[in-house]
Structures are given as structure tokens and as C-alpha cells.
């Protein structure tokens, strides 16, 4: 088999994830040789703009996908939550490995519990979903966007810019950074994560049978079914990718369990529903239909308007 060129963002976390995938594939019989091509994406170049204003998920993919389509790289390793539901024609997600921890972590400067934070405390987050969830539980606190690598965000917390920050547990585990600083693991009953959080996705060209066959050995069916359900849930909300939407699915006793949420930016309106079943599409649509019947599309339209006009998200 030819040498396989793997595309990766240049961030420390992205390279750790890419090297982990390569290490797993190297253990397979007749494994090929690998090289990594580091690629700077639009999202990496603009750390002074919030993701909500900047365009959300696709900002970390476009350059990688362009090089995939041009044949400059053979596959790319992504954090699944960064991937839009619709992929460019000719590309596919060929492999989803077993999921890491899906939860969010609350990290306070002085180890103060979330419920004990003083009124007016500032929590840093890069996500409108997390911001809305925080405000729903504590309308007396403030949220402020924070960008940059995980270790940089931890430094910003220590330097006094924030009283606490929210980070994905999966990224912290993969980096081996800050685990001892976690004050609380936030419950996925109230702090429902982003669709695909904690999961990786390996993208390649649809017509590259050799790479698709190579990646089959790393594919985890339970994780794939769970995140497929989550992504189908998100897909039901047209133009909703920037809104505070959370979706978490898991497989237990051969049943898919999906918990979905749509919120207003201020956290005052919370729509939530949970369904179990065997078909990802049916489960996703049932949860989405329930939330739509309760006004989810109106909330999303209002959120999109607010994000377009609110300078606090720039």
C-alpha cells in the first residue's frame, strides 16, 4: 500500500489526535507507512473572533477538505463536533473510533463550586450553547467568550480574566492537561454537550477504497450510531448550527437513547426532550419534532438575528 498522508491542523490537540489515530492503524497487519501534513485553517488564524460570529463548525475544515479533494492528503482527522452535517461532494466520514468522555468540565480559579459562585462572576466559554446552559442555571453570572488552545485558556483563568471556564473533558484527557484542576464534571442532563463531542472522525475521499478499507478496523459501531443520531437531530433544524443546541445519544441494551435541547441565548427558554428507539433517524426526528412543536424554530431564528447584531459575540 502507498504511503498515507494524513492532514491535521497544527494545534497541539489536533496533532495528538492525529498521532493517536496513526498509532492505532500502525498496529494492524500490513499497515502502511504514514506522514503528517500540518495545515493551518481559517479558524486557527482568527483567534480574536468568536466562533458564533466567525461561522462555526466549518472554519476548522475547509483547508483540510480542499487538500483532500485535490489529492494532496489521503485522509484528515477531525473532532467530530467541528464538522457540519453536510460534507462536500466526494468526501465522507469513513471511520469514527470509540468515543472519549463526552462531558463538559467546570474549572473554577479557586475551586469554588458552580452553585457557590458569587453573583456577577465571569465564566469563559467559546460556545453559545454552554453560555445559555450556564445562564439557565445561574442567571446572576456573566459569560464571556474565550478562544485559543486548552492550555492557553487555563492560563487565562489563572491570570484573572475569568472566575471559571468551561472545557470539553475529552480534549483535556487527550492533552493530559488540567485534569487535576477540574472542579466539577457537568451533568449531561442539564449541560447536554455539542453533537459529536468527544468523538473523532476520519474523513477521506469516497472513491478511495484503499483508505476506506484501512480505516474499517478502527471504526466503533456504537459510537457511530450514537453520533449519527446526534447529527441527524441537528440536521432537523435548518440554519440552526450556530444556535444553543445540544444533543447526546448513547447505545444501551440495543436501544439508542437521545437527549436533545434547544435554548434561547439568555437561557430563559429551555426546550428539552428524550426518546429511545432502534433507528437513528426515527429517534432523532422524534426528539426534533417535539422541540419544533414547542417553538424551537422560532428560538433559532431569534438566536441567529441576535448573533448577527450583538457585538458581545465578536
| Radius of gyration (Å) | 19 Å
Strand order of the largest sheet: 2-1-3-10-4
- Element pattern in H and E: EHEHHHEEEEHEHEHEEHHEEEHH
Total strands: 13
Helix content: 25-40%
CATH superfamily of the largest domain: Periplasmic binding protein-like II
Shape: globular
Count of individual domains: 3
Low-confidence stretches: none
Strand content: 15-25%
Instruction: Give me the oligomer status.
Output: single chain
The first-level CATH class name of the largest domain: Alpha Beta
* Average pLDDT taken over every residue: 92
Q: Largest sheet, described in full?
A: 5 strands, mixed
In CATH, the architecture of the largest domain is 3-Layer(aba) Sandwich
Structural class: alpha/beta
The total of helices stands at 11
What is the first-to-last residue Cα distance? 47 Å
Say what the CATH topology of the largest domain is: D-Maltodextrin-Binding Protein, domain 2
Describe, in short, the structure shown.
The chain is 34% helix and 23% strand.
Report on the architecture of this protein.
The protein has 314 residues and is of the alpha/beta class. It has three domains: 116 residues, D-Maltodextrin-Binding Protein, domain 2, CATH 3.40.190; 82 residues, 3-Layer(aba) Sandwich (D-Maltodextrin-Binding Protein, domain 2), CATH 3.40.190.10; 76 residues, Porphobilinogen deaminase, C-terminal domain (Double Stranded RNA Binding Domain), CATH 3.30.160. Helix content is 34%, strand content 23%. The protein has eleven helices and 13 strands. The protein has a five-stranded mixed sheet, sandwiched between helices. A hairpin with a 2-residue loop joins strand 11 and strand 12. The longest helix is centred in the first third of the chain and has 15 residues.
